[in-house]
Structures are given as C-alpha cells and as structure tokens.
C-alpha cells in the first residue's frame, strides 16, 4: 500500500519535530541544570550494575578494574565540561553554546575511543553468556528495559 503525500509529509514532519525535541531536551539550557549533580554516583551505579550483569569473575577483575577506571575518567571529563556549560549557560552566545556542545561531543568521542580497547580486552576473555549480556547492554545503550529474549 502506497503512502499518500499527506502521510509522507506528516511522517517527515514528525521525524523532524522528534529530532528537534530531542536536541532541545538533550542540549538545551534546561538539561544543563542537571549538570549541578555530579555524575560520580551515576557512573559508580553504572559500574556496579554492569559488573553484576556481566557476572565478572575473579579472574576478570584486573581487566574489569581497567574498564571501570576509564569509565570514571570519562565521567570526570564529561562532568567538568557539563558543569562549565551550566555555569555559563545564561551568558553564552549562540557561538559559545555551539563550542561548548562541540567540546562535550569531542570528549564523548574521545572517551569511547579510550574505553573501546580496554573493554575489548575484557570482552575477549568473556564466556559466551557474558558476551551475549554485554552485547545486550551495549545494544540498549544503558537503557533500563524489561528483559526480552
């Protein structure tokens, strides 16, 4: 069944509106206020949650420690940038805002680049069951969802 022109226009408008809403929520000043709360408790909870879900064995603890340390370092970097963004939110020009967002985006990409090799080393030594769980965790992007198999 073909979509009518109106249906296609609506679908495109809906997608654009969703993207704009996401950008406003994710990067707008309102979210900057969330930066007041440090990410330390959040990253520690994430580390503990992943450790439990992945059922890290005593033999994997040394490698897991490296993964957790990179996660903590990445969180500190992101916290500093988001804190700075929060502190300057009311006085930033549009250009300052874009630069700040670019710094956060770059830090996120750099963090992923630092995490990938240490996590890959841990992943290489995981059992098939652990790998399946790791795949599911990363596929969901850390979102809490009901277990679906």
Describe this structure in words.
The structure is a single chain. The protein has one domain. The two termini are 31 Å apart. It has six helices and no strands. The protein is 77% helix and 0% strand. The longest helix is centred in the last third of the chain and has 31 residues, at 94-124. It is an all-alpha fold. 8% of the residues are buried. The chain has helices spanning 5-27, 29-32, 40-54, 61-88, 94-124, 128-140. It is elongated and about 50 Å long.
How does the SSE layout of this entry go?
Blueprint: H1 5-27, H2 29-32, H3 40-54, H4 61-88, H5 94-124, H6 128-140
Helix pairs in contact: 3-4, 4-5
The residue fraction in helices comes out at over 70%
Total helices: the number is 6
Strand count, sense and closure of the main sheet?
A: none
Q: Are there runs of 5+ residues with pLDDT below 50, and where?
A: 8-37, 145-149
Cα-based radius of gyration, to the nearest Å = 19 Å
Given the C-alpha coordinates, what overall shape results?
elongated
**Count of beta strands:** 0
Structural class: mainly alpha
Sheet-strand content, in percent, reads under 5%
């Amino acid at each position: 069944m073909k979509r009518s022109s109106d249906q296609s226009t609506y679908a495109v408008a809906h997608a654009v509106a969703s993207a704009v809403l996401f950008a406003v929520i994710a990067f707008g000043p309102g979210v900057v206020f969330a930066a007041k709360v440090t990410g330390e408790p959040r990253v520690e909870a994430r580390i503990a949650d992943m450790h439990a879900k992945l059922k890290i064995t005593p033999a994997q603890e040394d490698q897991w420690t490296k993964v957790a340390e990179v996660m903590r370092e990445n969180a500190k970097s992101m916290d500093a940038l988001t804190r700075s963004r929060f502190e300057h939110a009311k006085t930033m020009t549009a250009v300052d805002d874009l630069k700040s967002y670019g710094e956060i985006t770059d830090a996120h990409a750099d963090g992923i680049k630092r995490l990938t090799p240490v996590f890959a080393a841990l992943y290489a030594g995981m059992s098939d069951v652990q790998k399946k769980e790791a795949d599911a965790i990363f596929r969901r992007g850390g979102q809490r969802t009901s277990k679906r198999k």
